[in-house]
TrEMBL record:
UniProt domain SusD-like N-terminal: residue ranges: 81-226
Assigned keywords, A-Z: Cell outer membrane, Membrane, Signal
Ranges of residues in domain RagB/SusD: 266-519
Signal peptide range: 1-23
The protein, known as: RagB/SusD family nutrient uptake outer membrane protein
Keyword Signal: yes
Presence of the UniProt keyword Membrane in the record: yes
Subcellular location: Cell outer membrane
Length: 519
């Protein structure tokens, strides 16, 4: 049974004004006894835990991993397509988000800064609490990690953004380089303070899974180095994660995308959702309400036709690339069936239904393909129409650590060493030894191979477009034409639109903010 870290913190001062001639001014200020105030909060270790739990809470709302952030990460890549009737969602993947309509991307931006603000409250107030020093360090480490994570998304998706390090309201826009510098600093601080796990600690967080760990901080630190092309530091950092000795690949690839075997040995960091925790209302954003559950709308958003909204689908180029190489037993790559629903010869079940039978009267759907990752489709639910998925979102898997480490080895001159770590990932799904199948790859050839390997290991997980952007493919005419041939959505790409626009509300409220190029 996974632990839940969903307690929320609401801190505000209520003012009651009673107009009488015999009341002193100081008597007019009243504190609502039903709510903690800034004067009474931040006093105990319980307050520290509640404060950091509130910072985790910003991962659960519509702007982040309840729905919008997976779409923002997936939509522009060549593994995903959208024919959503909702224009805002349809345009995400066509590089055409509207500056005047902040739907989806604007909600993400808003929630990243909500999370950053909550982290800054913890970092400002917890150092002054008299409490166990080791617990305090863990709380502060989690605050640094989460601030780094929210800022990572803001810098990665919006380029030049404010970098708040205190609880003031307004902060000037900074350069992307300054943003990455702070992301790296936060993950470094987190790695110094966080434990490898919570199994052997004492205190209010003892044994709780889902909290940020040293491995998570190091993993994202390495990722930040990689995204800024500091391959040497990225390589050293990923090796530290490997050397922790606490992670390994699960034998069943699909276990990474269902509500069984969550927080497993492959999970470096995942967002905790649950159908059992809290109420039944979806948490759209803002201050939490008592009826909010802790569930995700990702499943219904990506669900197959008639089982959800089908706002996102895999591309045919992804489906076809899974057929490029057979396993050592002569079978199709098993990741295909874990990733995509399709009219499979011999049959395929979805939500207890046979694919071919269910879509028999709809030839367009019968001959289409749909997302299977993160679907509650193994027979326990009839569909996703209640919008309430309890599947944890796996943000960082050990497979990604191994693949990023292999990439760093290749970029720092050890192409032969890259084979070893790529093969660990291939071995899980029974693919042939790459050193035998493609021996003697040079650095450029290995780069291409890593692109292929990552495409098939991480589709529909929010990594592909990050890879395309950081590899510079959009600025390479040959690569851009290749992408356009694979995915027609790239035909509407123009330089600068690899980033989302700065929301107009941010520009209005923060004078001097400069809009991203081409918007």
């Amino acid at each position: 049974m996974k632990y839940k870290i969903f307690s929320y913190l609401t801190v505000f001062l209520s003012l009651a004004t009673v107009m009488t001639s015999c009341v002193d001014n100081e008597d007019l200020i009243q504190v609502d006894p039903n709510n903690e105030s800034v004067q009474t909060f931040w006093k105990t270790d319980q307050h520290a835990i509640e404060g950091i739990n509130a910072a985790y809470g910003s991962l659960l709302t519509d702007g982040t991993y309840m729905r919008s952030t997976p779409l923002m990460l997936d939509a522009k890549a060549d593994d995903t397509r959208s024919n959503s009737p909702w224009g805002s969602m349809y345009n995400l993947g066509r590089f055409n988000s509207n500056v005047s309509d902040p739907s989806i991307y604007g909600w993400g931006y808003e929630t990243y800064y909500q999370g950053i603000y909550r982290c800054n409250q913890v970092l400002t107030n917890v150092p002054n609490i008299e409490m166990d020093a080791t617990l305090k360090n863990r709380v502060l480490g989690q605050a640094y990690f989460l601030r780094g994570l929210y800022l990572f998304h803001a810098v990665n998706l919006f380029k030049n953004v404010p970098i708040p390090l205190d609880v003031e309201i307004f902060h000037p826009q900074k350069s992307q380089a300054e943003g990455w510098e702070q992301v790296i600093a936060d993950f470094k601080a987190a790695a110094e303070l966080l434990p490898a796990s919570y199994d052997n600690v004492s205190g209010l967080d003892a044994g709780q899974k889902g909290r940020a760990t040293k491995g998570a901080a190091l993993g994202y630190l390495g990722k930040a180095y990689l995204f800024t092309k500091d391959f040497e530091n990225a390589k050293l950092t990923f090796k530290k994660v490997i050397d922790l000795g606490v992670y390994s690949l699960v034998s069943n690839y699909r276990d990474n995308f269902t509500d069984t075997n969550e927080n497993n040995s492959e999970s470096v960091f995942e967002v905790q959702f649950s159908r059992e925790a809290g109420g039944v209302d979806l948490g759209w954003g803002g201050i939490p309400a008592s009826g909010w559950g802790k569930t995700s709308a990702r499943a219904i958003t990506y669900a197959p036709r008639d089982f959800g909204w089908t706002d996102a689908q895999p591309t045919w180029v992804l489906f076809n690339e899974f057929h490029d190489e057979l396993t050592i037993d002569g079978q199709l790559d098993p990741r295909l069936d874990a990733t995509i629903f399709y009219n499979k010869p011999g049959g395929m079940k979805l939500y207890g239904q046979d694919f071919a039978t269910f879509y028999a009267k709809s030839p367009s759907d019968l001959n289409d393909i749909f997302c299977r990752k993160y679907q509650n489709s193994d027979g326990n639910y009839a569909n996703e129409m209640d919008w309430r998925s309890g599947i944890n979102e796996r943000l960082l898997r050990y497979a990604d650590i191994l693949m990023m480490y292999a990439e760093c080895l290749n970029e720092t001159g050890d192409t032969q060493g890259a084979y070893t770590y790529i093969q660990i990932v291939r071995d899980r799904v029974g693919l042939p030894n790459l050193a035998t199948a493609k021996p003697g790859l040079g650095q450029a050839g290995m780069r291409e191979q890593i692109g292929h390997e990552r495409f098939l290991e991480f589709p529909l997980e929010g990594h592909r477009f990050d890879d395309i952007r950081r590899w510079g493919w959009l600025q390479d005419n040959a690569k851009l034409k290749w992408l356009q041939a694979r995915d027609a959505e790239f035909n509407s790409y123009v330089n600068g639109r690899e980033y989302y626009p700065i929301p107009q509300l941010e520009k209005d409220n923060n004078p001097g903010t400069v809009q991203n190029d081409s918007y």
